[in-house]
């Protein structure tokens, strides 16, 4: 399955595990990399010394390439950069900020840089900044999201048409058939987050994992656009947010309601009532917890099966 992305990252399959805060530690990253994809450590929820520990453990657990996801708004980003360079992390995914800030510095140390975008405009700016590839994330995705609410399967072909660098599709993809659809529209690879939450290697709390298994279509909603758009799994906290909107809450009141540590409380500590539960629309397709390696294998096998069906003309029109 060689293409521009597998060559760029030095991986077997064009499957990237998203760097989700509170869910993507070294165990998940190493498991996905060992299975032939690209595992990512989500550094946005980590103190500098914690990131260093996770990178060290990941390097011991796999001899294959892995990456670190680096939100540009992280307060100690310079310390994260130092750690990434110190341990020669081969790939960095940047998000939520200007890619010009750190791209050249990282590339100067031999690090491949990928930037996450939610529009054609930002994809072009990322290419201009010199990044090696972009992740096109549609609004189906979990966690923080774009404001324009462009779907993945609209965004990917629009971006692929305008840029020359490799494109990775993200948002609403959790199966091999979804992967084939994304790559048919112009993606060179897919980034998958929500499906990997429901794995033993994920650092998400078991309560959160099981809550995902019981979710169905319509159980997530994009909210809090006045602050930072985020897709949430519906629970008591989400209902409080909806009530605040019905009462015409101000931005300040929404800030106060959100408070601090909501995501950690929900996804990492397992508070299903007051916690913030970030997951994508694809949660409705997740019905069991299985090892990350099995998830990768299942996705690739389904991709190949669907591709063969197309080649053999087994579709009715």
Radius of gyration: 19 Å
Describe the biggest sheet? 8 strands, parallel
Oligomerization status of the protein chains: single chain
Based on CA inertia axes, which overall geometry fits? globular
CATH topology of the largest domain: TIM Barrel
What order do the helices and strands follow? HEHEHEHEHEHEEHEHEHHEEHHHH
Portion in strands: 5-15%
Question: In words, what does this structure look like?
Answer:
Helix content is 42%, strand content 15%. The protein has 317 residues and is α/β, with parallel strands linked by helices. The protein has 2 domains: 4-204 and 293-311, TIM Barrel (Alpha-Beta Barrel); 206-282, no CATH class. An 8-stranded parallel sheet has the order 1-9-8-6-5-4-3-2. Strands 7-11-10 form a 3-stranded antiparallel sheet, with no helix packed on it. It is globular, with a radius of gyration of 19 Å. The chain starts with a helix and ends in a 6-residue tail after the last helix.
